[in-house]
Design brief:
Porin; 272 residues; 3 helices; 12-stranded antiparallel barrel
Length: 272
């Protein structure tokens, strides 16, 4: 059956070729002569090619939309010295591509009492690819009395996709401090992500009310492994190593706290 079909197709092809040779004008392969089209008028040309010399081309660009983001980078439970610890790190912004209003907060509750809490309100502006300069105020609530700071810093992506956040703080009384945070997302799979993090805090002068010594007062190194159930929700487990230095470590020991701690953490990272 298949051979008969091929033979018939071959015969039809030969017949079509013969007709083309004998009668080219009537061949199925002959093309009809193009129809004559009228020449466009001046009005049609003007409509197709308008004069744009007086138009602001920025009006033709897409509008820069207003966006918001609330990110709980860390919301985790820990245990140290027999006490339950709740730790949080919030990063939120509202604005457009160039200018944004940032709200940052971090803190810690140990044994049902707040041991550390602060909130920052910052204005940020893009000054380079992947980088923002920020400035504003920081309010400390714990430990010790409330204290206000002026804040100036930068944040963005360093080479090799390290996220950096460096901020300097100044009080009316002449105290100065600085904080440097660096983190990196290492993709094991598209949803399983390992995140190393380091945070270092420095103070220019001793702060007896808050049991903080001058120089590098504390440092923390963390390693968290999260799984993104959805891009917006990712539970994680991790381990942290924190250490106090100098007079800050001495003040911690005098208060019955450990100057060096290793903690295992369980938490979630989510945004909306």
């Amino acid at each position: 059956m298949r051979g008969l079909l091929v033979k018939n197709l071959r015969s039809l092809s030969q017949l079509a070729l013969a007709l083309t040779v004998l009668h080219p004008d009537t061949s199925v392969f002959a093309q009809a002569a193009p129809s004559e089209l009228p020449a466009p008028t001046d009005a049609e040309r003007e409509a197709a090619f308008p004069d744009l010399s007086d138009m602001d081309l920025r009006e033709m660009m897409m509008e820069d939309p207003f966006n918001t983001l609330v990110l709980f980078d860390r919301l985790e439970a820990q245990e140290a010295d027999g006490s339950d610890i709740l730790d949080w790190d919030l990063d939120a912004w509202a604005g457009r591509d160039v200018d944004k209003l940032w709200v940052r907060s971090e803190g810690e509750r140990r044994g049902g009492e707040t041991e550390h809490a602060e909130v920052e309100l910052l204005w940020g502006r893009v000054f380079g690819r992947w980088w923002d300069v920020v400035m504003g105020i920081r309010q400390d609530f714990e430990p010790g009395p409330r204290r206000s700071w002026a804040a100036f810093g930068v944040r963005g992506l360093a080479p090799y996709w390290f996220e950096l956040d460096a901020t300097a703080y100044f009080t009316e009384g002449g105290q100065a401090a600085a904080r440097l945070e660096a983190e990196y997302d290492l993709l094991i799979t598209q949803r399983l992500i390992l995140q190393p993090l380091i945070e270092v805090t420095w103070y220019m002068e001793d702060d007896a009310e808050r049991e903080i010594g001058s120089g590098i007062s504390s440092a923390e190194i963390g390693l968290r492994l999260r799984y993104e159930i959805r891009r917006e929700i990712a539970p994680y487990i991790g381990v942290l190593r924190s250490r106090s230095f100098g007079d800050t470590a001495e003040a911690a020991r005098a208060s019955g706290r450990e100057a060096n701690e290793t903690r295992f953490v369980v938490g979630a990272r989510f945004w909306f």
